[in-house]
Amino acid sequence: MQPERAPSAVAQPGSSNPAALGRCVALLQTCKSLPWLKQIHAHAVRRGVPLGHPGLAKHLVFALVSLPAADPMPYASAIFAQVPNPGVFSYNTMIRGYAESCHPRHALDVHRLMLAADVPPDSHTYPFLLKACAKLLSLRDGERVHCRSVKDGHDACVFVQNTLVHFYAACGLFESAHKLFERMSHRNLISWNSVINGFAINGRPNEALTLFREMVADEDGGIEPDGFTMVSLLCACAELGALALGRRSHVYLAKRGLDRNAHVGNALIDFYAKCGSIEEAYKVFDEMDERTVVSWTCLIVGLAMNGFGEESLDLFHAMERERLVPTEITLVGVLYACSHCGLVDDGFRYFNRLTREYGIVPKIEHYGCMVDLLGRAGLVEEAHSYIMNMPLEPNAVIWRTLLGACTMHKRLATGEAVWARLVELDPGHSGDYVLLSNMYAAVGQWGIVQKLRRSMLKGGVRKMPGHSLVELGNHMHEFVMGDRSHPQSQQIYEMLEEIATRLRLEGYMPHTTNVLADIEEEEKETALNYHSERLAIAFALLNTAPGTPIRIVKNLRVCADCHLVTKLISKIYDREIVVRDRSRFHHVTVVFSQQDYTAFGIKIPLSNSDERILVGRSKLTVMLKSKSRCCITNYSQGS
């Protein structure tokens, strides 16, 4: 319900009962439910306090917007409409209520009413307005509010500045947010939290960690971080795969007693899952005093991301037994798990339950999971038909998912049709060129590959270079393919030669079909040997003690050859290796015996041990397990 102004005939406050008014205002201070508040309001009216009395109305509205009720704003709006001349406090309270509700657009409507009534905004008006704009992700409205705050002289207020930083960061303009932060003459904890979180949520974890270090080492003695700071820090650590730093953050939270907070617990589950330490994620979940739907969702999605599809579905069933209602994101995790387990029928059953049992209208993300489910199962034509019959207009991501399936299963005709749609929707996307190029290269059509690459150069389309990160001490070391800029470059390449020698002794032969270039076999072998993740692994082997787990973060998908090499390096050097792949998860389980094992055409002598290998969107984890099944999945190419 949009706010309306009261008619002029509303009763005036002169006939009020001061004693009754005072009692009701006092009762409102302790009011904790909507029925209780309505009783107080009814009592005031019966004792002669007019409906439009501003003294009662402002306290009623303030109490209403402070209630944890689902939507108190219709009642608050009805009260507000009875007041003939509301003051700035009442307007601010209504703006705050709408900004925190599911209808933030109405906060801007109240602001317009406020200006039309010639009520000047104060320093409390703009933070709530900017909060509404941030929820709406409305850059234009937010910029208008920013200009108005400058015009009214409130832009120097620290509360307004903090909300401006938050607003621009929420809209993805983290550089603008940082500029505002740099210009602030006074910064408090909220200022630092806003800018750190702005970088963290916009995929700039390095900047977030740098600002965190500046915050605690400030010239004025530093600012002590709180739970919000640490959640942003954990988000940055998860993005980088900085497990050691995240663990230290966890210890800090435990010492401060903040680890029992549900929001912090959820952030910890998400962090450990994205760093490949699913056991620690489950431990945090198991030790939580109160598990919300978000807690269950974090672990369900985390298990699915790490390749534990069956475990993810089991946890979902346990959540249902707890009578908790899943969210849209929960079902995305469930469908993701079905996709990576190849459970096509189960995936469709869960999808059908979205609307029938949970009342959730499927969104584009859910349809994307279904396309991925069909594509991974090799049902490429069915996936194409599914997209054509979707009730929603498919976006570029949906078509790109299908193009990836066409590349994986070498479906040229369908792939070309999908490419035509992508050119219309998102021309110039480098990933589409790479997928199409890989599809043609996989079937040996090198002429078309060269033509595509010339087209990329002519159109100014640049492929994202592959890089890998490894955490050592308090630093993240970055490597790119063929990188020789690292201070230990000579030792790293010597280690690569040693690794290559030991791999050959194990029976490894390079799987050069992963190099999609029309070059000689020897050049292909050299190119494979210098992939960024191999450089990172060699660096880690040089600089960590024997038996220490190695954790790598890569921004592109791991190729099949690097997957197998990583497996063999883990066996040869007796290391647990986690490679976080930025594209998606693949899950491979291999059982070792005295017999040889052949995968991707490579014969590998095996030993008496069980090994579980996870290659995935966020990880490739080598862990000791007792499993008896063997599952090989297809891989697209990386570098």
From TrEMBL:
Gene Ontology MF annotations: RNA binding; zinc ion binding
DYW domain boundaries: 507-588
Pfam families named among the record's database cross-references: DYW_deaminase, E_motif, Eplus_motif, PPR, PPR_2
UniProt cross-references to Gene3D superfamilies, sorted A to Z: Tetratricopeptide repeat domain
Record keyword Repeat present: yes
GO biological process entries: chloroplast RNA processing; RNA modification
PPR repeat positions: 87-121, 188-218, 261-295
KW Repeat (keyword) present: yes
Keywords for this protein: Repeat
The protein's name in its UniProt record: DYW domain-containing protein
Organism this protein belongs to: Musa balbisiana
